[in-house]
From TrEMBL:
GO terms for biological process: carbohydrate metabolic process. Gene3D superfamilies: Glutaredoxin. Its EC number is 2.7.4.9. It comes from uncultured Sulfurovum sp. It comes from the Bacteria. Keywords: Kinase, Transferase. GO terms for molecular function: dTMP kinase activity. This is Thymidylate kinase (EC). The lineage of its organism: Bacteria, Pseudomonadati, Campylobacterota, Epsilonproteobacteria, Campylobacterales.
């Protein structure tokens, strides 16, 4: 009987499966058995909408997105909603990690329409020729709380397009015009970048800084790694103590907070509260990659062992959960067995009992629970607690207690891990490893990434191991891989890294830089890049930085001018919204203050890596040349030469350039 039921279930699943069943994307496969007749993004789906004169229902998300799961379960498994969608709409699903260009474009449209940032899931309703007239994020099947229901919205949108076409046409025209204006270059491109940019950035960020709980903004609270990295650079440049304190305090609060997995290491994507206590439990490779780099910057400035310990635990966790064949999966989910945070949280009584069973005294167990804020009332849902550090005394047997808490977790199912290998995010993490001094690990991963994703002179965006890559590289893939290659050259002085960086840089400019604008992709879908660091550093800003650094390493004055002109075109944006563009601000500060190149033979540079790394001046490159003496140069001149490095370092710190 059981066998018959299983066969019947499989037959029903196969009957219900939609066109997503043939896709590789883990996110699309999660929706392959929805009753909604989903189509993957592509010319076929867009042509079908035109042919049938049906409006388009576009849903964008990713596989480890909690609210995508909620909407998927509530709305897209709902037969009534599916019936409306299948009758009146062409329904298209997009994995934002597979198509970041498509996601970025429609996130920009959402921001224009709603005057605030969007998120995931992103819901877009368009005319049959793909012109937007409605955007939203999460939508339930029926109205609840502040949300309208799809049972109301879908008929309204159908009526708007088919029965009030003049209004719909006006709406699509205005939305299209405003979106185009947002990405257009400013007419006055002669505005220079503000000479007081560092103080401008500090002032703008101070307005958003949470002086009580540290960090930027209110809940939901994101790590903003590049903002703190730029603050640390400003402190190095100006000796401004406030900038360093803001960054150090925020990084300390995050390291001790619930956004950091106190048991296994690794950061969750964001905190749902302003105190950093309760996270949204998904872990993203890019979040940890960026924070790794920022904590390294902070550690080198302060020597704070908490920062070093946080880096080590982050690296250990990413290797434990994401590493495969020296490459890294993209993310892990927040949910286990349909319950958010189930794997990561603890109940007071169960945890106390297990600690005592494992030989921890009642007094020390109580101390440990207080230390990790695991309480009877709980700090999360259903009287469960997410560990974050209190001001209590650290337990003597902390390492053993953590092992016991980890063993307790092992009795549960670990959340789903998205097994895509993404070039951009892997490159970010590899660069973070290099910054953190994990040279051997980083170089193994860099070689693996290039061998798996750069095939026959074509860089690809992602790959599922065991299959062939299909999606060609985007701007972010080129930008972040070039940056990792430059960093690899700085660690090894092997010309192969520099040569490949130059080659990819030339390809990137040719593919993505058109009519003085950077594009996110080299295809028919027009998505303009910008300088905003959202949800991670701007690929456009990194691309300009790559051109600037390679210009210094190649003595290429034309490339130097190109990078300067590219950034200056956006001076108005940087001046007015530098806190929204922290990575671009960092690149602008490089141009204003100057990049210094230390030149010597390879052996001398490798011998003195540690001293060079400890320089307080933030913008220093190293280049291997066939000279025994050391020299320090800017793009304009060499200002210091000596047989010993001490004089060179002193002249750099004294800013004798």
């Amino acid at each position: 009987m059981l066998k018959k039921l299983i066969i019947l279930g499989l037959l029903l699943m196969n009957t219900q499966a939609n066109e997503l069943k043939n896709e590789e994307s883990p996110y699309l496969l999660q929706h392959a058995n929805n009753p909604v007749n989903w189509l993957p993004w592509g010319d076929e789906a867009l042509a079908k909408a035109k042919q049938e004169n049906k409006i388009i229902f576009l849903s964008i998300g990713y596989s480890t997105c909690h609210w995508c799961h909620v909407m998927g379960h509530e709305s897209f498994e709902n037969e009534e909603v599916a019936a409306i969608l299948n009758r009146d709409f062409i329904n298209i699903k997009v994995d934002r990690e597979e198509y970041p260009n498509i996601d970025k474009h429609y996130q920009d449209v959402y921001k224009v329409m709603n005057q605030r940032a969007g998120g995931w899931p992103l819901t877009v309703i368009m005319t049959p020729d793909a012109k937007v007239f409605y955007t939203a994020t999460y939508l339930p099947p029926k109205a609840k709380s502040k949300y309208r229901g799809l049972d109301e919205i879908l008929p309204d949108m159908y009526d708007l397009y088919h029965n009030r076409k003049e209004l719909a046409t006006t709406m699509t025209y205005n939305i299209g015009r405003l979106t185009k204006n947002k990405s257009a270059l400013a007419e006055n491109t002669s505005i220079p970048i503000d000479e007081n940019l560092s103080m401008l950035f500090l002032s703008q960020l101070t307005e958003k800084y949470d002086a009580r709980y540290k960090g930027i903004g209110v809940e939901p609270k994101f790590p903003h790694a590049t903002s703190f990295d730029t603050l640390l650079d400003i402190s190095r440049l100006t000796l401004n103590f406030d900038a360093k304190t803001m960054a150090d305090d925020a990084l300390t609060a995050m390291a001790k907070g619930g956004i950091n997995d106190q048991i296994e290491g690794g950061f969750y994507r964001y905190s749902t509260d302003e105190e950093w206590r309760t996270p949204h439990f998904e872990k993203m490779l890019y979040t940890n990659a960026e924070l790794l780099e920022t904590y390294d910057n902070a550690y080198k400035m302060s020597g704070n062992e908490l920062f070093k310990e946080t880096m080590n635990k982050t690296i250990k966790n990413i290797y434990a959960r994401f590493e495969k064949e020296n490459l890294f999966y993209s993310a892990s989910d927040a949910d286990s067995n349909g319950v958010e945070g189930k794997y990561f949280t603890y109940t007071y009584r169960e945890t106390l009992k297990v600690l005592e069973q494992k030989g921890i005294s009642n007094a020390e167990a109580q101390l440990a629970l207080n230390y990790f804020n695991i309480t009877e009332e709980g700090n999360f849902e259903d009287k469960t607690s997410n560990p974050f550090l209190s001001d209590e005394i650290e337990p003597k047997n902390l390492a053993k207690i953590k092992e016991i808490l980890l063993e307790l977790r092992k009795e549960r199912d670990y959340p789903f891990v998205d097994y895509k290998i993404q070039t951009s995010w892997n490159a970010l993490f590899i660069k973070g490893l290099l910054k953190a001094g994990e040279k051997e690990k980083a170089l193994k991963s860099l070689d693996a990434l290039v061998s798996k994703l750069y095939l026959k002179d074509e860089l690809y965006h992602q790959r599922i191991l065991g299959t062939e890559p299909k999606v060609k590289g985007y701007l972010e893939d080129y930008a972040f891989l070039i940056a990792a290659l430059i960093e690899a050259y700085q660690a090894t002085f092997e010309e192969k890294h520099l040569d490949l960086a130059k080659k990819l840089n030339a390809q990137s400019i040719q593919k993505f830089y058109k009519e003085k604008q950077w594009h996110l992709s080299d295809d028919n879908f027009k998505a303009i890049a910008d300088l905003d660091d959202m949800p991670y550093r701007s690929a456009m800003a990194v691309s300009i930085e790559n051109i600037l650094l390679l210009a210094h390493l190649s003595d290429d004055y034309d490339a130097y001018d190109l990078a300067q002109n590219m950034l200056t075109l956006h001076a108005r944006k940087i001046n007015l919204e530098s806190s929204e563009t922290p990575y671009a601000t960092k690149v602008a500060l490089m141009l204003q203050n100057g990049v210094v190149i230390i030149k010597a033979n390879k052996e001398n540079l490798l011998t003195h890596q540690k001293e060079i790394d400890e320089l307080y001046y933030p913008y220093v490159l190293r280049k291997a040349v066939k000279e025994n003496d050391f020299s320090a140069c800017t793009m304009q001149k060499c200002f210091s030469t000596d047989a010993k490095i001490d004089k060179i370092l002193g002249d750099i710190e004294g800013k004798r350039f």
